[in-house]
Design goal:
The protein is an all-alpha fold and 124 residues long. It has one domain. It has five helices and no strands. The chain is elongated and about 60 Å long. 22% of the residues are buried.
Length: 124
């Protein structure tokens, strides 16, 4: 039988790392690399506040919250692919898409493996 606790721990570490990396990338993108004149902070908040709403879930390791984070990441993935197709933001868009994909995969695997670990612990 697989060791769900170990798998959940590893996927949680990857989730936390990619979550923080995504917030750093979005902050650097909208505040430093390609700032928009005038409403820079509004654009930053538009992109980062929905992600920051999941900070408690990500750092505490709540499986159901990780699943909801994955649903929201689908919207970010669309924007990442569109950014990767634009000549000016192609490189940062590609990094953005890879980070979103990593975060999505690790968060979904964490939700699955942590739920299975908790079910095994409750049934034992």
């Amino acid at each position: 039988m697989p060791e769900y606790q170990t798998k959940a721990r590893i996927s949680h570490l990857i989730t936390v790392f990619s979550y923080v990396a995504l917030l750093v990338l979005l902050s650097a993108w909208h505040l430093v690399l390609y700032p928009i004149d005038g409403n820079t902070w509004v654009i930053w908040a538009w992109h980062c506040v929905p992600l920051l709403a999941f900070a408690h879930v990500v750092f505490k390791g709540i499986p159901r919250g990780h699943a909801w984070l994955c649903f929201m990441l689908l919207l970010y993935f669309v924007q990442a692919v569109l950014s990767a197709m634009h000549p000016v933001t192609a490189l940062i868009g590609l990094i953005y898409a890879l980070l979103i994909s990593t975060l999505f995969t690790s968060a979904m695997l964490f939700a699955r493996w942590q739920s299975r670990h908790l079910n095994e612990a409750n049934n034992a």
